[in-house]
Amino acid sequence: MTKNVKICFITGSRAEYGILARLMKIIQKDKSLTLQIIATGMHLSPEFGYTYHEIEKDGFTIDEKIEILLSSDSAVGIAKSMGIGCIGFADAYTRLRPDIIVLLGDRFETFIAASVANVFRIPIAHLHGGEITEGAFDEAFRHSITKMSYLHFTSTKVYRKRVIQLGESPERVFNVGAIGLDNLDSLPLLTKKELEEDLRINFAEKNLLITFHPVTTAIGSAQEQCSELLKALSCCTNTLLIFTKANADTEGRLINSLIDAFVTKDTSFRRIFSSLGQLRYLSVMQYVDAVVGNSSSGIIEAPSFRIGTVNIGDRQKGRVKGSSVIDCRPVKRDILRAISKVYSKSFEKKMKNSRNIYSIGNSSGKIYSILKKFDPQKYTTKSFYDIK
Fold this sequence. Notes:
Blueprint: E1 5-11, H1 14-29, E2 33-40, H2 52-57, E3 64-66, H3 75-96, E4 100-104, H4 108-120, E5 124-127, H5 138-148, E6 151-154, H6 157-165, E7 173-175, H7 183-186, H8 192-199, E8 206-211, H9 222-233, E9 239-244, H10 252-264, E10 270-273, H11 277-285, E11 290-293, H12 297-300, E12 308-312, E13 325-328, H13 332-342, H14 345-352, H15 363-373
Parallel strand pairs: 1-2, 1-4, 2-3, 4-5, 5-6, 6-7, 8-9, 8-11, 9-10, 11-12, 12-13
Helix pairs in contact: 1-15, 3-4, 4-5, 9-10, 9-13
């Protein structure tokens, strides 16, 4: 690989950055590479905690901040944000001239970054392609990003096969496991006492970590589904309920307002945070009995702690899931039944021997070694790979 290749990471949310941070640090230390960072989306929003500060506190320099979020989470607002984002990324790529960009996942900010990079003929390395989330319009974004990307780093063999099925050459598709799990080995997780002091909480006899996002393929369902969840949680006595807010998706603000009102009724056993950050979020997982909601973290990260996940509704429908995940409908009765199962003796016994199907180990190192070998000067137009 030629010297001083510029590798540009693009991040639009707290969760995304937390997953990418270790790989970014590895590249930052390599003097033959130049790390570039573009922060956008929720990172720059006061509503979501100005989380770009977390990036800077970790010793990184943000090369470009691209403002795209409007004060609306409607379909019109998000579509207009996408238009603003296209202009911002065009200007940023012109100034930074990256040799390759690294993208993770499926959010609309990621789709914008990929679309503009495709026009600029900048090679894309995409993480977590090939996955299915039938309850989010991000599903289409993810597969579209796959078709615009050159290098692919998937989290399971099933997803690698699906990326190839989409016409990507097997020699450019690498199964490296879920990169976010590297943090469990590298981050010094906080103790219970440290968390209680930092978050000003008191862990209880029972503890649940809750993140609930809107099902964006079913617009108008957020209020009913979130209300059913809150009705179920109100039946959980002597239980500390730790909420993290929904993303900037359509109807995300509605969910956050419902949870805010719910938490206000009992602040001794209910707490809500705009963002815990990766360290505190994973640290909290150590001390809760289950993750509840419809976040991908319940499917990918939670199994490593041998705790259950109550996966509600269709947002994560289609993902490969381990034995620790309990699927249920977004109705009070089913949610309560799933939570009850988490505390059953048979489930607790099963968790002691469970394994995380997304865990391979040193995913960041594997990705780094492939990126370092990649020569952008040899980047050529892709050919569609037909499965024989």
